[in-house]
Amino acid sequence: MGTTTLKLFNTLVGADPYSLNLDFTVTKGVEKGKSYSFRYRAINAVGAGPWSAVTVLTAATVPLAPPIPKYFSSSANSITLKFDLSADNGGSKITGYKLMRDNGNLLSDINVPVSGYDGIASMYTVSGLTSGMKYRFQYIASNFYGDSFPSDPLTIAASELPPAPNKPYVDWSRSSKTSLYIYWDPVADPPSPILGYILQIDDGRGSAQFTTIYDGSFVPGQTYFLKSGLTNGLPYRFRVYAVNFNGKSVASQIGTYYACTAPTKFAAPVMIA
């Protein structure tokens, strides 16, 4: 076994004891990706017949399913995806990849080949889609032995991401020395409607790090938030994102507001000289 040189063949089965089995599975001494030569012959009471012709087989199978496709960008009629390679070729060189999609209704099988995909590119734009529909995609690796299992499905809407909201505002009448009532304008729906908004704040000391204080990703009607527990006198920076099915927009411009209230009324002036 392991070569076509006759003197290096090893007997696997059928000599001691004899066997009439017509199949045998080799489980020991086999390395993935290596090729092995096999031959067999019949034996009767007179003796052994001639050896068969040699068959060369590679210890291999179909590739491992590749990772789920990654969303890159989208428009009302197209979706751009990025792909990663399968982590295991199964012992045989991968010859290409297939990109599959459904019909955009979330009910049909994911069995429509994306015909324009060349099986090699690490990024591809699927065009000709119906605006607002949600499509599922799977990625498949192929080698000499066949196709891998499909990747996990990725679902993306044929739609742009939301536009960036305007800078958030503060309502001083609803704020205090240690709280700020922040609100923002709603944004117009792209083909995939707005699902909600995310509001973030810095630490009031100029840090580049922002923290989410309100995640309304699935509360489309709320465009305000009262942030309490602030330190009186510090300037806090706020930014807001809009969210739809495909993800969040770029951040709004930053609104900076001090945690404070208006000065109290002074007493009437008095003459001192």
Estimate nothing, just give the exact number of structural domains. Answer: 3
Helix content: under 10%
Tell me the name of the CATH homologous superfamily of the largest domain: Immunoglobulins
What is the number of helical segments per DSSP (H or I, 4+ residues)? 0
Major sheet summary line: 5 strands, antiparallel
How widely separated are the two ends? 116 Å
- CATH fold group of the largest domain: Immunoglobulin-like
Order of helices and strands: EEEEEEEEEEEEEEEEEE
Query: Structural class, from secondary structure content?
Result: mainly beta
**Beta strands, count:** 18
Rg calculated over all Cα atoms = 33 Å
Write the topology of this structure:
Elements: E1 35-38, E2 55-58, E3 70-74, E4 79-82, E5 94-101, E6 112-113, E7 123-126, E8 134-143, E9 146-147, E10 154-157, E11 169-170, E12 180-183, E13 196-201, E14 211-216, E15 224-227, E16 235-244, E17 247-248, E18 255-258
Antiparallel strand pairs: 1-2, 3-4, 4-7, 5-6, 5-8, 8-9, 8-10, 11-12, 12-15, 13-14, 13-16, 16-17, 16-18
How would you characterize the overall build of this protein?
The protein has 273 residues and is mainly β. The chain has 3 domains: 1-59, Immunoglobulin-like (Sandwich); 70-157, Sandwich (Immunoglobulin-like), CATH 2.60.40.10; 169-258, Sandwich (Immunoglobulin-like). It has strands at residues 35-38, 55-58, 70-74, 79-82, 94-101, 112-113, 123-126, 134-143, 146-147, 154-157, 169-170, 180-183, 196-201, 211-216, 224-227, 235-244, 247-248, 255-258. The strands form 5 sheets. Strands 5, 6, 8, 9 and 10 form a 5-stranded antiparallel beta sheet that branches. Strands 13, 14, 16, 17 and 18 form a 5-stranded antiparallel beta sheet that branches. Strands 3-4-7 form a 3-stranded antiparallel beta sheet, with no helix packed on it. The radius of gyration is 33 Å and the shape is elongated. The protein starts with 34 loop residues before the first strand and ends in a 15-residue tail after the last strand.
